[in-house]
What does this fold into?
Amino acid sequence: DDDWDEEDFAGVDDNEDEIEEESRVGKRLSDVTTRRTICLILAMLLVLPNLQAEQVDQTPLSTEFGAEIVHDAFGQALADGDSESWQDYQRSMLTYIYYHNWFAGQDPETWCPGSKDCPGDYFGHIFWVGIMGKEVATVSNMTSQARLSASTVQAWESSYEDDGVYTFGRMPHEAIEMLQAAWDTNCDTTLYRRRGISLLAQEIEGIVPTAIRCPDELRSSEYSKYTARMVTEEAYISLHLAFYFDIRPFARQDAMFGLLVTLAVLILLIVGSLLFSSDANRLVLFPVEKMIARVQVIRS
It folds into this structure.
């Protein structure tokens, strides 16, 4: 008899759930889809950041330009040798340090009160200043001249007023004492002799939880070094002013964003794979397997 009724396929329909559970093709398709989705998202994470222009590359930074200003003032003071030139240099150095005030950056409400722009709006702040060079004698001689005098620091503190659009903020008296100290902290590296001062050289209760005498006490990802760049390579190797910035707040936020990106990628992978597998099974695999089962019934 060539007439086929629905009763002939009743067994096939009743076993639909069993077919869905035992679909080896579906499992294989799901595995392949998951792997390819992972490769696609990883490729996007690697490629897309390289196809975007960095905002930091738009213009030179204040850290770089300020280092040039201080370097030029220091060179002019060495050349002229008069008190006025040395005062100009020390004021330039104080302006640079206060413009990137570490304490105002860490606690703006205390050291930079008000709603004005201040170092607290940024992630990087200066914490170490000094001189680097090849010869110990030359570096030591220059640090004795480059150090800030107590009278200049006190005059700066007494005359400064927070009335500008951008305010420098204040520093605790322990940090002010460090500014007046001799640049004799030994932080030598394998290539350079390095002498200077650290604003974080001593613990300050509620302000500086851990003392940091030298930049190398931080991880390489937690600090940045800035120097004057409009100098010859020979002059740079021989002697140069060095400014180190604490970028730990930026590193912490970058790490947090990295974790959030990883979590978002995991969620996208899981949801995307589940949705694709479900749609493929529902629209392709299950109908095909049901059709194959019906053909097998007809053939038998």
User: Anything to note?
Assistant: The beta strands are 125-133, 185-186, 193-198, 223-226, 239-246. The longest strand covers residues 125-133. The mean pLDDT is 84. The chain is about 55% helix and 10% strand.
